[in-house]
Specification:
Udp-n-acetylmuramoylalanyl-d-glutamate--2,6- Diaminopimelate Ligase, Chain: A, domain 1; UDP N-Acetylglucosamine Acyltransferase, domain 1; 2 domains; ten-stranded parallel beta sheet; 4 helices; flat
Length: about 350
């Protein structure tokens, strides 16, 4: 489907600079833009490409000032990256309007299905479960008993949602994710481990996105809670009874141990590990591969394992390669001092 520059500018409420009638039907990166596509310039590092891109339309920030002529039509917006996301969301929605129940799926007679729901082949929806209006359950999804899935959710192939879990509105759960598996709870008696029943559930609030093969364990008692607006990357482990605050984002392979509470609007880099029963203050930023073994204050910026303030981490990183030379110098100085002491101290 083609859109003109004017139509796109009107949709984004942006300022058009160039040919209003040029049309595009796809997206491209600015460095390898092709005719018939729209791209964006959000990072100043890519500015040089705007003068040579073959894309017909480029989204730019309001404050962009060209240093030389540009062939493409420009659309000025407050945030080019956010504007591109809006366009891609609109384009994607036109390809995902699935409805109806495919054959070879199973839906319990005791399940409640909303309007305009899609359920793909080989999906299973258990007794007492509720699927909200306009939600999509792709093939091979398992929805256990008494699960509640809100409106306008997308559950991609192979997702497993165990019994009693709650998914809010406008959530996206990517392929292979597991919601509500048992938490890792065992008690040791003599030489054996005894399983502690995990009788709680998982609550995922509105507007959450969960990456592929991410796992969120059910609580021992009560709920493991993922608050509104959280974005989880692929391959993340959230243990039992954790609480992840609103609008927090985590990169891939982060691991959060049991009963940890992470505040609102935190950012966790890839492979961050957080110990159990820890509280992370809101607006904290934790660098990749950090290990957290104690509580952090609001607004902390930390990195390392064990983690400490980012500024000190970078200072330490500069020093670490020099440690072998410093060690040799220290040994040399110790020997020199020992020789000086022999010469200066009175002999008996």
């Amino acid at each position: 489907m083609k859109f003109s520059a004017k139509q796109i500018a009107d949709f984004l409420k942006g300022e058009l600079v160039g040919d209003p009638d040029v049309t595009v039907s796809n997206f491209s990166k600015i460095e390898d833009g092709k005719p018939g596509t729209i791209t964006f310039l959000g990072n100043p590092k890519y500015t040089a490409y705007i003068y040579q891109t073959r894309a017909d339309i480029v989204l730019v920030n309001d404050d962009f000032e060209p240093g030389q002529p540009i062939k493409a039509t420009l659309i000025r917006v407050p945030n080019a990256y956010a504007a591109l996301a809006s366009l891609m969301e609109m384009a994607g929605s036109k390809h995902s309007r699935r409805r109806g129940i495919e054959t070879m799926s199973f839906i319990s007679p005791e399940a409640l299905m909303g309007e305009n729901v899609y359920v793909g082949a080989f999906a299973y929806v258990g007794a007492g479960s509720h699927i909200g209006n306009d939600s999509k359950i792709y093939p091979q999804v398992y929805v256990g008993e008494d699960v509640h899935i809100g409106k306008n959710c997308t559950i991609y192939p192979g997702v497993k949602i165990y019994s009693d879990c709650v998914i809010g509105d406008n959530c996206i759960i990517h392929a292979g994710a597991v919601i509500g598996a048992d938490g890792f709870g065992f008690s040791k008696e003599e030489e054996r481990y005894h399983k502690i029943p995990q009788i709680g559930n998982v609550i995922i609030e509105d507007d959450v996105e969960i990456g592929a093969n991410t796992t969120i364990d059910r609580a021992v008692m009560g709920s493991t809670i993922i608050r509104r607006g959280v974005k989880l990357d692929n391959l993340i482990q959230i243990a039992h009874n954790c609480e992840i605050g609103e609008n927090t984002v985590m990169a891939a392979q982060a691991g959060i141990a049991g009963s940890t509470k992470i505040g609102n609007s935190c950012v966790l880099g890839g492979q961050v590990g957080i110990g159990g029963h820890i509280t992370i203050g809101e607006n904290s930023q934790i660098g990749a591969q950090s290990g957290i073994i104690s509580n952090t204050k609001r607004g902390s910026e930390i990195m390392g394992s064990p983690a400490f303030p980012v500024k000190n981490f970078f200072k330490s990183s500069v020093i670490i390669p020099k440690l072998p030379d410093m060690y040799r110098q220290l040994n040399t100085l110790e020997k020199e001092i020992a020789e000086l002491k022999k010469d200066l101290l009175p002999r008996e």
